[in-house]
Amino acid sequence: MELHYERKTAWEQMTAKELKELEACANDYMAFLDKSKTERESTTEIIRQAKENAFKSLEEVIKKGTFKKGDKIYLDYKGKSAVLMVVGEEFETGLDIVGSHIDVPRLDLKQVPLYEDGGLALLKTHYYGGVKKYQWANIPLALHGVIYKKDGEKVDVSIGEGEDEPVLYINDLLIHLSKDQLQKKMFEGITGEQLNVVIGSQKPANSSKDSKHPVKDNILKILNKKYGIIEEDFRVAELEVVPAGKARHVGLDSSMIAGHGHDDRVCAYASLRAILEVKNPKRTKVALFVDKEEVGSQGNTGMHGSFFENMLAELFNLVSKHPELSVRRAMANARVLSADVTAAFDPSFPDVFEKQNSAFAGCGLAIAKYTGSGGKGGCNDANAEFLQEVRATFDADKVVWQTGELGKVDAGGGGTIAYILANKGAEVVDCGVPVLSMHAPIELISKADLYMAYKGYLSFLK
Questions:
Q1: Are residues 308 and 384 in the same domain?
Q2: What average pLDDT does the segment 370-378 reach?
Q3: Which of 96, 231, 238, 295 pairs with 410 at a CA distance of 20 to 30 A?
Q4: Are residues 270 and 375 in the same domain?
Q5: Could you tell me if 121 and 169 are in contact, meaning their C-beta atoms sit under 8 angstroms apart?
Q6: How many other β-carbons are positioned within 10 Å of the β-carbon of residue 377?
Q7: CA–CA gap between residue 136 and residue 440 (Å, rounded)
């Protein structure tokens, strides 16, 4: 019996077959990430794959009036959150849930965003989630989202992703005039009100001499020609500014992936891939894909909302005499992996990490017994019994896993959706991929950790 615990990388423990599967998984994930720049686009892709794998909508099941073991059911909730469920023999007494979030830090356009100043047309933004504002300057940006015309027509917007499309941009102050800026703290170097996106600069030769805003006028004409929208339509739009471009392999060994939104679409992808492989389970299996985690999980599409419990109530209404009580029992008997990322140890910034209890890139799926901040403030703290269940499951299927926490005790911290589900009575533990440069416009993960997340979620669901 080995008395000492020694962390090993996933790379040195994988078989040749797994290494081959890893590359296929990584390439598929990168394609998913490129299609899923917003929570709406993520939901669209998740539901597309669900339909391809014989999942039926909740509405279809309700209309049919019945369901049985092995049935695959999906909920597309307002186009921004989703649930995939594979019905098992046990429904009221057994739910196994992998819950991730599909919203990510970004910049949202304000409701009246477009203006002209200094010969430039710009868009005003309001950042979403925890960001370092200076990181969003001087990089190629794209605009994604939806906008409604006055007649009610919905228009999908995507600008800056095609190879032949122009990108957008946020200016920073030139170094020659930055004496005062450089004396400020980093979070004050660029303020929220300075995150203005350059969208044009041309004053056409045929501009009206009476126009006070010829550059802005030209941009509105371009948008009207391309999308049929007018400036007033911005007031009822949801438009997000994100980094332009595709996910990329990183390192001479191509062992890592750089992309926008690893937090938390890497766990969302891994759980999607896993649940699509589940068939005829004993316990009912669920993959949750939720919105609004980065701003507190509030709102009707966030985990604090009722859409998942409402879905359960609709299904129990078909098979139970007391559907509301059955929902409560199902949640109290649920087992949950809160599939959210954690911080990977960064050797360039060792002072904020407690190395012995940090997760490392390349060492597999990371289990965090607790998150929160300081004295575990605001966290779910998983119990030993459930941790042992998860360990036994992962070890039996040779899932390479590690433990980790979000930095030193007094360095900061963070949270996930874990406590929300635990408050319903479920057994919950955080379990996700270690990330470098978390919440930056472009984040970094190890392919090995992505693969072990998929393998771990599949182990838990199967």
A1: yes
A2: 86
A3: 295
A4: yes
A5: no
A6: 10
A7: 8
